Amino acid sequence: MKKILIVLIITICLLIISGCLKKDKQITYEDSFIKEVSKLKYYNKKYNKRYISYYHSHTDYSYEDIVIQVNIGLDKPFYTNTTVSKFLNKNYILVNKYTYLPSNYVPNDLILLDRSYSRDNMYLVKEAAISLKKMYTDAIKDGYKIRIMSSYRSYDYQKDLYDKYVKIDGKEEADAYSARPGFSEHQTGLCVDIDDGVINYQLFEKSRSYLWMKKNSYKYGFIERYPKNKENITGYSYESWHYRYVGKEIAKYIHQNNITLDEYVAMFLQK
Fold this sequence. Notes:
Number of helices: 10
Mean pLDDT: 91
Low-confidence stretches: none
Distance between the termini: 64 Å
Shape: globular
Structural class: alpha+beta
Helix content: 40-55%
Number of strands: 8
C-alpha cells in the first residue's frame, strides 16, 4: 500500500511538472511570436491577444498575414465588432463588413455624370468623376468602351436593394454579393459598376473592355475592389465590374502589390 502511495505521489508530481513545462514552453513561444510580429510597421500592440489566438488557428499563415488580417478584423465574424469609418470624405475611406457609414452620410461634392458614358441620374464625388471621364475618353481612343451602370447610392436605396435580395435568395446568400445598408461602398460616392454597353455587367470579365480596365484603371486612381481570389479578405464574391476610386498613388500601390483596399488600410492607415 505504501509503495502504491509513493508511486501515485511521484506520478502526480511528474504530471504537475510536465504541465508547468508545457505552459512555460507555450509562454516562451508566444513571447517569441509577439517579438517577431512587433517588428512589422503595421503591428498594433493592443491586438496582441488577438494575434496570438488567430495564429493558433492559422499556423500556416505568415506573421505578416496574421497581423494584416487581424487588423482588418478577420479574426472575428463579418458584421461583428463594427465601427464607423474614420475617413469620411477621403479617397481612402474604407467601407467593408467591419466599418460602416452613418445612415445620414452623404459625401461632399457629388456631381452628375455625363450621359455619354453613364445611365441616367448617376452621381459621383467630383474628383472621382473627373478621373472617370478621363479614363472613359482614353478607353475610347484605344478602341474600348466603358459605361457606368451604378454609382452613388443612398443608405435608403441600399436598404431597399439589400432587402429585395434577402427576400429572393435569403440573408446568407445575399450577404455574399450585396452589402447591408450602411456597409455599401456605393454610399461613399467613390465607386462605380461598369459594363461595355454590350455584355451584361455581371459578365464584364468576358469583355474586351475588362482587359483594358484590368491593365489601366489604376493609372486613373481606380482599383478593382473585389478581385478574384481575395474573397476571404473582402467578404464578397468576385466582381469584375466594381471599381473604386482611391487616387493614383494608392491605386498604383494596390495594383503593383496585388492587395485589396482592406489590406492597404490595415497596413498603412489603421491606428
